[in-house]
Structure formats: C-alpha cells, structure tokens
Design a protein that fits this description.
The protein is mostly helical. The protein has one domain. About 55% of the residues lie in helices and about 10% in strands. The chain contains two helices and four strands. A two-stranded antiparallel ribbon has the order 1-4. A two-stranded antiparallel ribbon has the order 2-3. It is elongated. The N and C termini lie far apart (about 85 Å).
C-alpha cells in the first residue's frame, strides 16, 4: 500500500513542471534509515577494498618470490630474437649464476 502510494506520487511528480518538481531524495521519509543504508553501503565498499588490497599484496609477494627464485638467479637471461627476413626465432641459453 505504501509502495503503491509512493509510486503514484513519483509518477505524479514527473508530470508537473520543473519548478514544482521535487527531487527523488525529498521522497525519503525515514532519514535515519536512509543514512543507515548509506553507512552500510560505505562499510561494504571499505571491506571489499581491504580484501582486494590484501589479495593484491599476496600476489605481489608471490611474484617477488618467483622473480627472486628464477630471474634474479640467472647470470644471462633467456632472450629471443626474431628474424626480419623470415619468421624464425633465435633463442640464447639462459645461464644460472654460479654459487660457491
């Protein structure tokens, strides 16, 4: 019943002139509840942002560990050269650093 009345008021509001028209926020009756919904939404956004940041930090740590265990241990890094005249690739040999 209240929803129907609110829909009727909103549709009637759309038919009036711009000067008489109310903004959608002016139809909010329970301002306390509205503020509570906004705060809950902000809290959810903050939680999601924190989780994403944690995930990014975990992945960054994992990336750094992989780089340290592979790329940084190489004396000569593996590279490839492509020929200009044909579609051949030439690879060099990757050489690990010697450990005493």
């Amino acid at each position: 019943m209240i929803q129907k009345k609110l829909r009727d008021l909103i549709s009637e509001n759309e038919k009036v002139t711009d000067i008489e028209q109310l903004s959608r926020d002016e139809f909010v009756v329970d301002l306390h509840k509205h503020e509570q919904f906004v705060l809950e939404g902000n809290n959810v956004c903050t939680d999601i942002r924190k989780e994403a940041e944690k995930t990014n930090l975990k992945l960054e740590l994992l990336r750094d560990r992989v780089i340290d265990s592979t790329w940084n241990k190489m004396d000569i890094h593996s590279t490839a050269m492509k020929s200009i005249q044909n579609n051949q690739l030439l690879f060099n040999f990757a050489i690990r650093k010697r450990t005493p």
